[in-house]
UniProtKB/TrEMBL annotation:
One GO BP annotation of this record: Golgi organization
GO molecular function: ATPase-coupled intramembrane lipid transporter activity
A Gene Ontology cellular-component term: trans-Golgi network
Gene3D superfamilies, per database record: HAD superfamily/HAD-like (3.40.50.1000)
Species assigned in the record: Menidia menidia
Family annotation (InterPro entries): HAD-like_sf, HAD_sf
Name of the protein in question: (Atlantic silverside) hypothetical protein
Amino acid sequence: MADLDVLQAFALERSMQLEFLRTACMCRAVICCRVTPLQKAQVVELVKKHKRAVTLAIGDGANDVSMIKANSRQVWVRRAKD
């Protein structure tokens, strides 16, 4: 799991991007939580740039727009009213 501190300090720094990508690719899934919308989109773009992979991100709010638009496949979650 990558949080705001990990992404800011290491993963999205140009010198560490490929190491982050190599590590992430060894995992079955990568979850980026409590990070900025821009960072979410940057993770998606990093994968698309260096891997021949279909990406999927799921979002439920307006702050997820940049991440979702950057993906190969988009999924929007609509909350049902109580």
